[in-house]
Every structure is written in C-alpha cells, then in structure tokens.
UniProtKB/TrEMBL annotation:
Residues 888-913 have a biased composition (Basic residues). It catalyses: Hydrolysis of proteins in presence of ATP. The lineage of its organism: Bacteria, Pseudomonadati, Pseudomonadota, Gammaproteobacteria, Moraxellales. Residues 646-843 form the Lon proteolytic domain. Its EC number is 3.4.21.53. Keywords: Coiled coil, Hydrolase, Protease, Serine protease. This is endopeptidase La. Belongs to the peptidase S16 family. It comes from Psychrobacter frigidicola. Residues 236-255, 878-925 are annotated as: Disordered. The active site is at S738, K781. GO terms for biological process: protein catabolic process; proteolysis.
C-alpha cells in the first residue's frame, strides 16, 4: 500500500473569488494568544477568509443536458481521431514516407484506445491501397534444403495450389494407366527380345569358334555358369538340352544368366583344365599343355564377350528409360500446358513448373511404383510435399492492404517457423511444414504490436528488428538459437518485406527503449503521442457523446438519454481532475456504459438515464472501497487518532491519498511536529525519510520547507533548536510533496507555541518563496476529510484548505457541494503559506512594525520571541553554572590552603619534638 502525498501539478491561473458573506467559526472569533472570548477577529483574518473562501458554484462544473442529443441514437457521426490529432498527424507522416526506419511508436497510457483508433484509421487508408502479392513456398528441385519463395498476384496462390494438386492426381492416374497398357508391355518385350537375340548370336559365334579347338560352350547345371569344356566332358543332358546352339532351351536363357556365366568362366577355366587332365590320363603332356593354351584363349574371348554383353544391357536399359521418359512427357505435357498458360506472365512460376515437369519425368518409375516416401502424399494432404504448393499468405483481389494485430508476438509468431514431425523416433520436415508469421500476413500493409508483449518473449525483438532493417523475412530455427545444436532443418529463401509496424506502449517504455536499445531510434523514427484528456467544450462534449454512441452500437446496449450523457461527461471530467478537461480513457468509459446498461435492464427500462449511471458509479466505488471501509471502521473505533474539532499545538490534519492495487481514496493523516530548544541549529528530522518510509519527492518537499524557514528567521535570530516531523500511525511508504504546507504549519505552530484549529485539514505543495503550488488527487482528498468529519459528526466548523491553483480541478461529490451550500463545510483556496497559517491559527502571520520587525502579536513575531527566550534562558543557565563553578573552585582552594597549613604545623611540631629529643640526649651523655 502506498500513501501518496500526491505530487504537485502545474498551477492554474484562477481569478479571485467574489466577495461573499463570511461565517466565522468560534475558534476564529477567539483570541488564541490571550484566550479571551467574544473578541472581534483580526481584520487580516476577516480579509483572508473573504478572499480564500470558495463558493459552492466553483466546486463542480455540470454539463448542460439540453445541449446534448435526446439519446445516443441521434448522436452525431464519430470522428475517429477525436482528441488525438497530434498522434494521427505523426502517424500520417510515417505512412507517407517509405524510407527505411519510418515505423511508429504510439505512446500513451493503457486504456486510451490507441489500438482501436489506429486500427480504424489504417483500415480506412488500407482500403485504398493496392493489394499486395500472395506468397507461396515450393520445393527446390536443385537444392531441396532451401525451399523457394514465389510471389503471385493477389488471389492466384490458391489457384496455383488447386491446379498443382489436380495435376498430381491426374498425372498419377494417367501414368499408372500408361505403364500398365498392352502397348507399353509390347514395347518392353520388343526391347528385351532384341537384346536377347543379340546375346544369343554372340554366344553362337563364340561357341563356333570354340569348336575349332575341340571345345564346347556349356552352362553348368548347379550355377548356370558358361564354361568351355572338351566335348567328352559334356553330360548327356547337357549335350541334348544345354547346347548353346540348341534353340529349344538355351535361347530362352535370360540375359542376366548369360552375363553371369561369362564372368565366372575365367575363374573355372583352370579347374576345367585340371579335371580334363585327370580324365584323360592316356594323353600326352604336350596335348594337355595345348588344351590349356586353347582354353586360355577362349577365356579371353569370353571376357571380351562379357564386356560387350554389359554394354548391350546398358543400351537396353537406356532404351527402356528413354521409353519411360517419352511416355511420361507425352502423358504429362497436356496436363502442364493449361497451368503454364494460366501463369504465362509469371516467370518464376513458369520456371518452377518446368522444373517440376522435368522432375516428374525423371522420377516417373518411382511415381508409378509408389515405393518412395518422397512420392507419396504427405500427412493431411493429397499431394506429396515434393510437389505441394504451401501458401504462406493469400489475399482477395482488390481487398486493399492488410491490417494485422498480433496479440502473441513470439519469435515464431512474428517471423514464422518450420514445423517438424516425429515418426518412429525420426524427426523430419519438408516444404509443406513451413508456417507463416505475422510479418508474412502484414506484408504490404500494416502490423500493430504491443511493445511490452514483444519484449516479454525471447528473441522476438531481435527478430523483428532484423527483419525491419534488412527488409526481408528470414525464417530461422529458434531451437538452434536457444540450444546451440546443429540439427538439420530447412532454410527457406527469404521473403521481401514491405510493412509499416506500429508499436503500442506507454511513454516510460519508449524512454527505456531509447536508453537501452541503441538501434531503436533508427528503426522507429516516429513517435505518436496520445493525450489523456481533451479540453472540455460543447463541441468536444458532442464528440464524446458520438464516441459513446459508437461503443453502445458496437456492444448492442440500450440507448442513453441526455441526462445519462451529462452524468458520464461529468464523471470523465472527474477522472481528468479538471473542470475544463475530459478524460479520453476508453476502457473506463466502456466499463461504465456496460454497468449503467445493466442497471437499466434490472430496472426493466429500455433507455439508460442519470439514475442508472449514478448507481453504476456507486457500485464501482463500493467495489474498490474495501480498504477505505476498514479505515473508517478504525476511525469509528478510535484506533485511528484524528481530531476534527478543538485545537492543538504542532498538530495538523494533512490530506493524503492512499493507493492500493486498483483502489485509491483520500484520507486525513495526523502530522505532528516536536521542538527541542537549544539543541542543534535549525535541524529538522524527517522521521519518515530516516526509516525509509519516505520517498524522494517527500524528502524534496521537506528540504524546501527547511530552506524557507532558515531564510525566514536566520536573519533575525540564530536558529537554536532542532525539530522532528512525523505522520502518526503511518506504516506504509509515503511520497509526494503535497504535505509541504501542512509540515510548515505544524512546525511553525510548535515553534510559536500557537495552537492550530483541528477542524481544518490542509494540503498543498510549497516553493522556497512560500508560495503554495497545486497538487494532485484534490477531489479524493477533500472527500476523505469530509467523510471523516461526517463519521465524527459535522459541526459546521470543519473545512479544508487547498491551493488556489487547484480550484479549477474541483469536481466534488454532490453531497459535499450541498454541505458547502448549507454552510456546514467550508473549502478555502490559498496562494501563500501566510494565508494558510492565518486560517489555521486565526492570527496575523507576518505583519511588520515601523522598525521592519514582525509585530509581537503575529505568528512570526511569537517565533522570534521564543527563539530569543530560549537564547536568554540559555545565557541565564550558563551564568548560574559559572557561579556554581566559581564557588566550587573557591572551596577547593580553601581546602587546599587549610591542608597545607595543617601539614606545615605538623612538620614544625615534628621538628620541635626532634630538637627536644636531641637536647635530652646531650644531657644524658
């Protein structure tokens, strides 16, 4: 809880109150110095009363309901920029300049409706702006890790996506039909048969050459290996069935088996020769050697044939692949042609379609077989991610520029991100998982962000600043930035950025960013200040009624009649704390409209009147008054010591404002001053400050008051005293300088030993010249003391003393105004400390005599008198002390002299005794 002695505000020029009849209190009709009753008051006191008393007509400014619409249904049209012309002009300047860094920081208190005003203005402007391009991400067939960003005219991204999806469905169906047709199978068989015939012919030629050397080409039954053997080694079944020249079986041998047989022949030739040698033991050594040489020769010929057969097989595969590609081209080209014609003016889309066509032709076998994940439809889609068109942002044609507000401006939500999917422990991602951010959606238009929300999220501000400076939206992995890992992820190509960003925040945050972020001013070059209030004129009252009508229509509330409108305007003036100004806080107005509408509904009314508004204000006040009620309960029980009658020396009722969470109310606080004569040199102890319960503004007020008193009295007499000031029964933090006047009154009362009228409470700031300055929270302070007086019974003598500069800020409750009209409560406005002291003490303050000294019957004269009295008393006490010290010193000297005489007599006596003893000793001898 903070007890605020509310900060001083700029003084307002207020004309002198008109002469009115003064009702003097009994305490003012008494001679406070002599205690004699029935003595006429000092003329100065009467003149101050006349000059400072505030009339009831000055306590509140009422709205004339007759000048307002009969009800809100007949209200004038709303002016969006009402009261914020300065901010809107700054915003328009930023919108007209397309250079880098001309973004806007809209500064103003929360609840002013900054976002609503700016959004409506931008929407009006955006309608006339050209619609920005659509953006899509597609697969990069050259570098799959860097998906390509394509921009298309507004509305064409959806068309491209639909046509590509349809193309995929048609292409898959058509290719499956073509590759399962009889025509395709016959062409494949023709290629295979031609290749097989060539292989068979090659084997026949080689077999004929082997017969010249009495060698036969055969295929072993266990591995179908082609080898040359002597005809005698041929098995019968081999001769009959496996002869290469036999067309019954061998021509049906597959190309793959022939190729394998040719490769293995060289490994088995030596074994064949050895077996041949053992099987013909009767041959000579020369015949065996000759047979081995012949087999070696045929082995080389077989190796050569193997190479030729591999080339032949490669040619066959190439022919098959060429056939596949030719079929794919002829099947796909009619499907791609309409899409290419639709986007004939977009070179980047045509380039992508050509790359897609080439990729589908190249991988036609994998498409048809559907055995590869890259060519299978992705999750939640009907198209493989390889051929999907991921729309990042799409706009309707002629819809104007986008206006986007992002309420959760994280790094991902601002710049977009790449999602990932985990399947069986494997993390994967693709182009279809790229998600757009607020910058993508607002690209080509306007983006509104709450500054405090941006700063709450890690890396959000850094990402936003980088994007605005580079004018590109570059997606980056936040996980890598935070964890410093090197996990593989996509790196999409950046998107060109053209956007105006408007940050919304309070002025304090703006100053902090200027101080702590060196590049902030380079990015947000324009500041748009939103005002808290507006001058209260008939024109502005009508404009605020139009604002009420707009809110009522939007929320579908009952209409408000002119009496309710007047009450709302008076309440807004109270919130502005100025009779001549109206608060522009939209949140407060919206809340009051809804609650007033509730009371009308409960009252079975279809139109809201002044009674419903008054009840809503009372309900709001009651909800926030729990702490205040506790204080009043303590006041009733006597736990809070506040006197609203009688007189006391060095004791003042100071007006304060207590702030706790969203609750704020005024209350009096007892301020006391205690003097210690002849100790110190005018030192004043601020107890609140010394125990760390006083703020810097409160300390400043104390120092100003101290310097004023030193300058006031030090020229007349030395300040031979010290003093202490404290707020009694205050246990919370105290700040503000509005207690400066009350502190000066309490201190001067204690110095002069003059009582202060406890029926008055006072507030006000003061400068070093003794002039009273305006303070804040004046209405709550007056209401607080009035309620305290009512709790302890209104005597007709109570009142408050406030700075005259605050009179124009008075918007008091009607019951307080009635009390002032009835003469049972009084409100005074003072310009100087002397006027305040005159009202509080009933004495003239600083009247000078002919010698330019303060008169003895004035307050300042009594202060000088006491200072001199303390000095004289100090001199008398010093003289008495000196005389006592002299007496004590004389007594001490007498005692010392007597002691010396006694010591001398004792020595002389001892000397005589000794001499007598010596004479007697001589006689004996």
């Amino acid at each position: 809880m903070t007890q605020t002695i509310t900060d001083s505000e700029p003084a307002l020029i207020t004309p002198t109150a008109p002469a009115i009849k003064i009702k003097l209190s009994m305490s003012q009709a008494e001679d406070t110095a002599d205690g004699k009753a029935n003595k006429l008051p000092d003329p100065i006191l009467a003149e101050v009363n006349l000059r400072c008393l505030i009339a009831a007509e000055q306590l509140k400014r009422y709205s004339d309901a007759s000048k307002l619409p009969v009800d809100t249904r007949t209200a004038p049209p709303l002016n969006i920029g009402f009261g914020q012309q300065r901010a809107l002009k700054a915003l328009q300047t930023a919108l007209d300049i397309h250079a880098s860094g001309y973004h806007v920081f809209a500064a103003g208190e929360n609840g002013l409706g900054k976002r609503t005003v700016i959004s409506r203005l931008l929407q009006r402007i955006a309608v006339e702006q050209p619609t920005p391009d659509d953006w899509v991400y597609v697969h990069n067939f050259t570098d799959p890790r860097t998906p390509m960003a394509l921009h298309l005219p507004a509305g064409q991204s959806i068309l491209l996506q639909q046509q590509v999806n349809n193309l995929w469905q048609q292409a898959k169906k058509l290719l499956n039909q073509r590759f399962r047709s009889d025509h395709y199978q016959s062409k494949i068989e023709a290629i295979k048969n031609a290749t097989h015939q060539k292989e068979t012919h090659a084997y026949d030629v080689l077999n004929a050459e082997g017969k010249q050397y009495d060698l036969a080409l055969t295929f072993r039954p266990f591995d179908n290996k082609a080898v040359f053997v002597h005809p005698s080694q041929l098995p019968i079944e081999s001769i009959s069935n496996k002869d290469p020249n036999n067309d019954s079986d061998e021509p049906n041998k597959s190309t793959e088996n022939l190729k394998a047989d040719a490769k293995l022949l060289s490994d088995k030739i030596q074994k064949t020769n050895t077996e041949s040698k053992h099987s013909h033991n009767n041959n000579s050594y020369e015949a065996e050697l000759n047979n081995f040489t012949q087999k070696n020769h045929m082995q080389k010929r077989l190796n050569q044939l193997t190479i030729a057969l591999e080339q032949l097989e490669d040619e066959a595969n190439d022919s098959i692949e060429a056939l596949h590609h030719d079929i794919a081209r002829r099947a796909l080209q009619p499907l791609f042609t309409p899409i290419q014609e639709s986007f004939s003016t977009n070179a980047s889309v045509l380039e992508y379609l050509e790359a897609m066509f080439a990729d589908m032709v190249t991988h036609v076998e994998r498409i048809v077989n559907a055995d590869d994940e890259e060519f299978v439809a992705a999750v939640l889609t009907t198209t493989p991610s390889r051929y999907s068109v991921n729309i990042m942002v799409s706009h309707k044609l002629n819809s104007g520029a986008p206006v986007v507000f992002e309420d959760l401006p994280t790094h991902l939500n601002l710049l977009g991100h790449v999602e990932q999917i985990t399947q069986l422990g494997t993390v994967t991602t693709d182009v279809s998982m790229i998600r757009a951010g607020a910058l993508h959606r607002a690209n080509g238009g306007y983006l509104l962000l709450e500054a405090s929300h941006v700063l709450e999220h890690p890396y959000a501000w850094q990402g936003l600043k980088r994007a605005l400076q580079s004018r590109k939206i570059k997606l980056s992995s936040l996980e890598q930035m935070l964890t410093l890992t090197g996990s593989l992820s996509l790196s999409p190509t950046p998107v060109d950025l053209d956007v105006k960003v408007i940050l919304l925040g309070e002025a304090d945050l703006y100053y902090q960013l200027l101080e702590l972020e060196p590049e902030f001013d380079a990015v947000f070059k324009v500041r748009a200040d939103f005002h808290d209030d507006v001058v209260r004129t008939d024109e502005h009252e009508l404009a605020l009624v139009a604002k009420m009508a707009d809110i009522i229509n939007y929320a579908k509330l009952y209409p408000f009649d002119n009496s309710a409108q007047a009450a709302l305007l008076e309440y807004l003036s109270l919130q502005a704390e100025d009779q001549d100004r109206l608060s522009l806080h939209s949140d407060l107005l919206i809340k009051l409209l809804h609650e007033s509408n509730r009371h009308a509904r409960l009252d079975n009314k279809t139109i809201v009147d002044v009674h419903h508004v008054t009840q809503a204000i009372a309900d709001m006040d009651e909800r926030s008054g729990y702490l205040r009620d506790l204080y009043w309960e303590e006041l009733k029980n006597g736990q809070q010591l506040i006197n609203t009658s009688g007189q006391a020396v060095g004791q003042v009722n100071a007006l304060t404002v207590v702030s706790y969470a969203d609750s704020e109310f005024g209350m009096p606080a007892r301020l006391t001053a205690v003097i210690q004569p002849n100790i110190g040199a005018g030192d004043i102890l601020d107890i609140e400050r010394d125990v760390d319960l006083g703020g810097s503004l409160h300390a400043k007020g104390m120092l100003i008051m101290t310097s004023y008193l030193r300058a006031l009295f030090s020229q007349h007499h030395a300040l031979n005293f010290s003093a202490s000031l404290a707020f009694e029964q205050s246990y919370a933090h105290i700040d503000g300088d509005s207690a400066t006047v009350s502190e000066a009154c309490a201190l001067l009362s204690a110095l002069a030993d003059v009582p202060i009228n406890q029926a008055y409470a006072i507030t006000g700031s003061m400068n070093q010249l003794g002039e009273v300055q305006a303070v804040g929270g004046i209405n709550a302070k007056i209401a607080g003391f009035f309620d305290a007086c009512r709790e302890q019974e209104l005597t007709g003598q109570q009142g408050v003393i406030i700075p005259m500069a605050n009179v124009k800020q008075l918007m008091l409750r009607d019951d307080i105004i009635e009390a002032v009209k009835s003469g049972i409560f009084h409100i005074y406005g003072v310009r100087t400390l002397s006027e305040a002291l005159t009202l509080m003490t009933g004495l003239p303050i600083d009247t000078l005599n002919k010698k330019k000294r303060y008169r003895k019957d004035t307050l300042f004269g009594k202060v000088i008198k006491r200072l001199m009295l303390w000095d004289n008393n100090q001199d008398t006490e010093d003289t008495a002390l000196d005389e006592a010290a002299d007496k004590k010193s004389k007594k001490k000297k007498k005692r010392k002299a007597k002691k010396k005489r006694e010591e001398k007599r004792r020595r002389e006596k001892n000397k005589r005794i000794k001499q007598q003893d010596d004479i007697e000793q001589d006689d004996i001898i």
